[in-house]
Design goal:
The chain has a single domain (31-204), classed as Uracil-DNA glycosylase-like domain (Uracil-DNA Glycosylase, subunit E, 3-Layer(aba) Sandwich), CATH 3.40.470. The chain is 29% helix and 11% strand. The protein is built from 6 helices and 8 strands, in the order ββααβββαβααββα. The strands form 2 sheets. It has a 6-stranded mixed β-sheet with strand order 1-5-2-6-8-7. A two-stranded antiparallel sheet has the order 3-4. Strand 7 and strand 8 (178-179) form a beta hairpin. The protein is globular, with a radius of gyration of 16 Å. It starts with 40 loop residues before the first strand and ends in a 15-residue tail after the last helix. Residues 1-29 are annotated as: Disordered. InterPro entries: UDG_Type-4/5, Uracil-DNA_glycosylase-like, Uracil-DNA_glycosylase-like_sf. Keywords: 4Fe-4S, DNA damage, DNA repair, Hydrolase, Iron, Iron-sulfur, Metal-binding. It holds the Pfam family UDG.
């Protein structure tokens, strides 16, 4: 795939890689030797936005970078390496035309899951960053991220069962976005990984860009 996979849009939103818009999470509940948050990371001009759950699931509590450390996170990262979006060290890769973030960016002590109130508290930060990145293709990973993205950025959620096996790699038109749900890697079986790679290759081979009507700045 090579350069075809990493052709960027020409927007120059910012050249910062980690937390490019300077978001400040509203609480610090991280454990010892952990980062406050795994902030959004990558190419802020990206056409592809990969969205995970929280650092305890998809990694980043110690690196501060989404999709690192954990088996789930590294499995996702490996797909984007195969396609040429990610290069360099696994704990701090260089991303081109791809951005990674979580619906709940803040770290929590090991064994703790975000409460519904904590997800709600961080939703406005996630939404502001998603609209600032303004990617063309949203790739939510796992049930929580998929439910949120389908509910907030498409009109399809009420028509779809949240069956990740069935939704995996489906192309769903949203409000200015195309959404491609991704099954949690811990649940991948058979051909799931190959289907994701093939779907992304097919999207890259055609004109996936859409006219967008969402905001392109935070605030």
């Amino acid at each position: 795939m090579g350069s075809r996979a990493v052709r960027p849009s020409v927007r120059n939103v910012t050249d910062r890689t980690s937390n490019p818009f300077g978001l400040r999470p509203p609480f610090d509940r991280s454990g010892p030797n952990e980062r406050v948050a795994a902030f959004g990371y990558g190419d802020a001009n990206a056409d592809f936005h990969v969205i995970g759950d929280h650092p305890g699931v998809h990694g980043g509590k110690r690196t501060g970078v989404p999709f690192t450390e954990t088996d789930d996170g590294l499995a996702v990262q490996s797909v984007y390496r195969d396609l040429g979006f990610a290069t360099g060290p696994r704990d701090r890769p260089t991303l081109e035309n791809c951005y990674w973030s979580y619906v709940h960016m803040c770290s929590l002590p090991d064994g703790h899951e975000p409460t519904e109130a904590e997800y709600d508290e961080l939703e406005r930060y996630f939404d502001a960053e998603l609209r600032a990145i303004n990617a063309h293709v949203l790739l939510p990973v796992g049930e929580r991220a998929t439910d949120h993205v389908l509910r907030e950025y498409t009109t399809q959620r009420d028509r779809l069962d949240l069956d990740m096996e069935a939704l995996h790699t489906e192309e769903i038109r949203g409000r200015g976005f195309m959404v491609v749900p991704v099954r949690a890697p811990t649940e991948w079986g058979g051909d799931d990984r190959n289907r994701l790679v093939s779907t992304l290759e097919a999207i890259l081979e055609r004109d996936y860009r859409q006219t967008k009507g969402v905001a392109t700045t935070v605030g």
